[in-house]
What we know:
The complex is a heterodimer.
Chain A: H1 4-8, E1 13-15, H2 20-27, E2 33-36, H3 42-47, E3 55-58, E4 67-70, E5 73-77, H4 92-97, H5 102-107, H6 110-115, H7 126-133, E6 137-141, E7 147-150, H8 151-154, E8 162-169, E9 173-178, E10 191-196, E11 202-207, E12 214-215, H9 241-261
Parallel strand pairs in A: 1-3, 2-3
Antiparallel strand pairs in A: 4-5, 5-8, 6-7, 6-8, 9-10, 10-11, 11-12
Chain B: E1 2-5, E2 8-11, H1 20-27, E3 46-49, E4 52-55, E5 68-70, H2 83-90, H3 100-112, H4 119-125, H5 136-148, H6 158-166
Parallel strand pairs in B: 1-5
Antiparallel strand pairs in B: 1-2, 3-4, 3-5
Helix pairs in contact in B: 2-5, 3-5
Amino acid sequence: MATASLALNEATEVLRPGSEDEAVEAFGDGKDVLVVGGGTIVVADLTYRRVQPARALLLRDAGLAGISRDGSRVTIGATTPLEELVDLPAPIGPCAANVADREIRGAATVGGNLCAGEGVEAPRGDLQGALIAAGATVRSAGEGGIAEEPLEDFLPKRGGRLLLSVSYEEPAAGAFAALDRPHTHDYTTMAVSGARAADGTIRLAATGTGTHGVRLPSAEGGDAQAVLNDVTPHDDALASAWYRRKVLPVLVRRVLDELKGAA
Amino acid sequence: MNLTVNGVSHEIESDLLTPLLDVLREELGITGPKAGCHQGGCGACTVLVDGEPRRSCLVPIAYVDGGEITTVEGLGTPEELSPVQQAFVHHYAAQCGYCTSGMMLAAQAYVAGGGTHDTEAIQEALGGHVCRCTGYSKIVEAVAAAARGDEFDLTETAVGKYTTMTTGGAE
């Protein structure tokens, strides 16, 4: 009856916190802890022995799911499934709807999507771009306790932190454009998100141009081609750097046009 | 841990991180869900978890403790196929059959959730499922037929003849 996978995880201590406080305590300084949100990335990593952690932190029952609103401020808990985001206004909703398929979106969590490591052969972190464009901040735990900071500052060190929630001001207008190649696969090769704040400020950000989502300040003034000052696209299994350089300004142009057309 | 699969309750011994797929196939011997890619890319392992379609290869068993699972074995019987299964037979939606159980469970959830015969909506609902025979047109036709509530006379199909033969209905 024993199988490879039954034997596989015997050495891993499984932690199942029942509250945010318990989750923060169990995570500690995060050393050698595998955080399991919905499992759509890390369960495959365990199956294929790409990770063999000392401890696995199962977040499902830690009470970190849900979307709440305080005026125009939206807060999304770390274990909220992506499927619950698809009806939110652009750029968040359309970006979430662009992730994989219904079955994956029903299980995959916001925290997992934001904190996933760099993909081996394909970019990850679809929501990073959309939430950077929205000017989001994240609450996270780890060494030094709980901290709140802009998502852009958090992303480079996300591996050592436990994301608890992400929040942003609902933009006055938003737009999302993804590189869409039908009949291929469900990974987001590259996508651009844009948001216009109530004061008219425009923020743009991209997913799929590097190791994590980045803001695109050079193009925010309206010159789509200037986006190439902000990023150096890379080759991977989904697209060449050359192709990304050609398409990125097109996506930026579409987002800027959509923002211009929005009331 | 406890799992109810197709209405039957089971005590589970596998460790907490074991994928649901492995518990079904290896511990319980329920082999309708297929281990195609074992990393969420193909949809052959899809089952219903409390009515929702999920890739069973990506679900740690700890997450479905106490849950209700439906596999293709729980959809219908050879004598009494479910409406989705009948539609798949009538429209020849299975070729090699490897993707079929996952396809049918996704279709079951789609139809049960009030899905229509709209092609685009069906393609979206089944978007995570790969058919290596590329038999997508027939699969989408079958799901559309099930969504419309079409009824079929399957007695002249291979499945109908087999059923009649094994149940002793024909001389």
